[in-house]
Structure formats: structure tokens, C-alpha cells
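Chapter review: from sequence to fold.
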Amino acid sequence: MIHDSLTNARIYRPLGPLFAAAFDFLAGFDPEAALGKVTLDGDRLFALVQSYVPTPAGERPFESHRAYADIQYVAAGSEIIQFSPLDRLRVTKPYSAEGDAALYSGTDDWPLFMRAGDFAILYPQDGHKPGCLWLDAAPVRKVVVKVRLGP
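The C-alpha cell string follows.
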């Protein structure tokens, strides 16, 4: 897991060409962009533009992915992404390759406080619970860039 500000994205470009392309996209992201999927490099790299109102952490499950890393970027608003290593969580819905996700329950003990301009990179070993209420129940504008891992 990596948690930082987009102003420091240059540090993470060496993670690979897909990560560099993802940060290029985020650097030019228009917060007024239409909601939905933006294809950047076929199924290897795409973005999901979202808008929602955060909810209490207790109402949300943890999740993890195997085929993709997430770059979760808050363009407007604020939220908490609860984080936990998978070995501290209990599986509630086994992994499905179709949705590239498994769901978990566990203790909310590692909050990532996300303000506009912040991002988190979450890998397969990183259980995460995005969209959790922090400062207020105001709408969040967010981009989740999915970066394919491996071939």
C-alpha cells in the first residue's frame, strides 16, 4: 500500500509504464469528466470515474483484487479508505475472477485519510474499504485506475 499526494506522483512512475500512464491520466484529469469507465490501454489500464456520498465504515466490506492494482484518487471531497493486510481479515465472499474481487470483514484500525489530491495504490495483499465517512457526508468525486498486474 502506498498513500501520498498526486504532487509526488513522479516518485512512483518507476513502478512501470502502466503506472506512469495512470499518473499522466490523473495529472490531466478533469473533475467535471463524465462518470463511468475510461479505457486507457485496453484491459491493461482503465479508469472508473465515480461520484458518491461516503457512508460509515461499519456499513461497508473490505475488498481485495488479484488481477489489478488500484490507484484510488480523490479529485474532490474527502473520505477514509480503511486498510488492512489480508491476513487480519476474514473472507465473507470468496474471490471471483469475473469481478476480480473478494470481500472480507475485519477491524477498522488503519484509516487512510483521503483529501482532494490524495491517492492510494492498493495491491492484491492490501484489504481496503473505500468510501468511508470522514469529515462530512458531502459528495466525493473519485477516480479508480485499474492497473493490470502481470501479463
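Two observations follow directly from the output. The helical segments are 17-27. The mean pLDDT is 96.
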